[in-house]
Fold these 2 entries.
Entry 1:
Amino acid sequence: MKILFQNCLIYDGSGSPPVSGDVLTDGDRIADAGPVLSALRPDRTIDGGGLALAPGFIDAHGHSDLSILAAPEATGKISQGVTTEITGNCGLSPFPVTERNRDHLNHLYANYGVEITWRDFAGYAAETERRRPAINIAPLCGHNTLRGAVCGYRDEPFDIEQAAALLREQLRQGAAGFSTGLLYTPGCFSAPPEITALLKVLADFKRPYTTHLRSEGNQLLEALSEAVDSCRSAGQEHLHISHFKTSGRANWHKLDDAVRLLASAPLKITADRYPYTESMTQLGIILPDELARYTNDELARHLADPVHFAEVTALLRRQPPERWQTCRLVTTIAPNYAKRNGRVFAEFPDPPLACAEILRDDPSGAMAAFRGMCPDNLRRILNLPYVMCGTDESARPVDYRFGVSHPRGFGSFPEFFGYFKLEEAIRRVTSLPAETFGLAGRGRIRRGYSADLVLFDPAAYRSEADFSHPHRMAGGIKLVLVNGGERSGRVLAR
Ligand SMILES: [Zn+2]
C-alpha cells in the first residue's frame, strides 16, 4: 500500500523549521519526502490541507505492558499522536516470569483479564503481536520483576548470578534496556552492589539504564548520587532519570543541586517528565515505611484484623491535615469509594478512616494523585536539553473498564507542546527519544524510515483531559499511521 500525503507542513523531527511538501509511504516505510511528489501513482492520497505532518510521537515512559494486550487499540496514546511507547518502566516489566513471580504478576494485573503464560521477552512479544496492537512498544526489563523471578517479593538473600543470567537472556532477546523502581517492593530491598552487578550485564549491550529513583524528595540528591555511582562502578555509560522531579515543597530548592550533580556526572544523561504537578501512584505509599514494605496480600491481611486496622487508622491521623488536601483518590474498586474516584481526600467526612478502608479493601488497585510538585521547577525541568515527554501511564480505552487513569494518559503530549516552539516540541517527542532508546529508523521523516506518521492541526492540538474527565481525547489529531497502517504496531526488539 502506497499512501501519498499532499500539501503538508512537514516537521521532520530534527528540530528544523517545517517545509511545505508531500510524503509518500510504501508499505511500512517512508519512500520519499519532497516539495511535490505528483508524478506518482499511490493507492491512496491524503490532502493534508496545510496541516502539520510529523514523525509519530514516542512516549519515553509508559506502563502499557498488559493494557496493550487487553485493549490493543491503545486509545489514550494513539489519540495524542503516540506511535511508539517505551514500556517496562519503574522496575515493572511483564517478564521474566518464573514460578516465583507468576502468581504475583497475575494478581497485580488481574483487572486486565489477561493470563500471563509466557516466561520471557520473546514469549511476551509474540503474545502482544498476536493481538495486533495499535502502537509499537519497546519493552525494558524491570528489576522488580527480575528480582521477583529469582527470589519472590520479600527481603531475602538470593543468587545474583542467577538474576544476571536472566537479565542477559532478556537483553539478548531484544529488551530495550533495564529499569529500576527502587522506591517499590522488592527493589527497595536492593543495596547498590546488587544494582551495580546487574548494570555490568547491561553495559555489555550498550543500552540505557532508566531509574525511578529510591527517593524523589527528601533523599533526592542521595538517590541521584547512588544512580550515578552505580553506573560508574559498572561501566554503564547511559543513565536515564524517570519522571525527573523534586517532590514535596521542602525539596523544591534542590533542583539546582540536582541539575549540577547530573551535569557533572561523566555519563550520558537523559530524562523524561510528564507535564503535570500531581503525581500518581499506589495509595499505599502514604503509609509509614515499615507498612509500605508489605506486599499487597500482607497489607490486606494486616488490615483485616480490627486491632491492626485501628492502629493504622491512628497512624494516618498523625498526617498533617494539609496532606488530605493534596492527596486525591484517582481509582479504586473498594466498596463505598468506587463512585468517588477523582475526589480529594479532604472532601471525605473522615479522610484517615477513608484511606485505611480503601487500603484494606483494595490494597493493590487503589491509586492516588499527590500534589507535591512545583510548577516553576516543572518548567525548568522540561526545558533541560535532555528531557523528553513520558506519560507514565498505560494506554487506556475511553471507558473506565480497566480503571481510571491520571489525565496524563490522554493529555501529556499536548500539554508538553505548550512549553516549546513547535519544531522543538516535535524533536523532543520524536528523534530525541528514538536516539535515547536506540529505535533505529524511527523518529524522523526521512526516506527509508518507518512510516510512523501523525497528521495534526497544531492550533487545535490541546488536552481535554482533567481529573474530572481523565479519559477525554486530545483535540487536533487528524490521522495516525503506525508502520504504514492501523493496528499494525510491533514489539521493537533491539
Ligand atoms: Zn515510576
Entry 2:
Amino acid sequence: MTGRPGGRDTSHQPRRDSMYEERVSDPYRTREKWKEPTVCPDCRAVYHKGRWAWGVAPQGAHEHRCPACARIHDKVPAGFLTIKGSFFGEHKDELMHLIRNHEANEKERHPLERIMGIEESKEGATITFTGSHLARKTGEALRDAYQGALDIKFSDEDAQVRVSWSR
Ligand SMILES: [Zn+2]
C-alpha cells in the first residue's frame, strides 16, 4: 500500500524541474504549467503560447481545466464585489446590465475573467469573479458611471481582491 490515507503520497508524481515562480501569487495560475496546446474541457479555452485564449483547439491537444473553470469547480472566487446602498434597489436592472456588458467585453479578450455568481439581497448584491482584474474593473466601471464610494482591498496571500461599491 502506498500512503494514500496520509494524503502525502508523492511517489507517482513526476519531478517538475521547471517550477516557475510568477510575480502574482495566484495558485490557480501558477500551480502548474500546462502543456501546449491544452484545451479546457469545460469552456474550450485554449492554452497556447503561454496564455489562455478563445480559439479552436488543435487535434491532439491536452485536456485540462483552465484556471477560471477550476475556480468555478472549486467554488473559490478570485474577486468579490459587494454593492450596497439604496441606489442599487432603485436601479438594479440598469446596474446589472452594465455589469454583464462589462463582463462580456472583458471575457472576449480575457477568457479567465468571468462572473462566477451573483447573489442579491435586500441591501444590495455580492458578485463573485474568476479573475481579480474583472472584479476591480467592474467596481471602477460602476464608480465611473454612477460615482458613489469605491473601496478595493487586495490580499496577496489568497490572491483575492475584495471590492465594495456603495451609493
Ligand atoms: Zn475553462
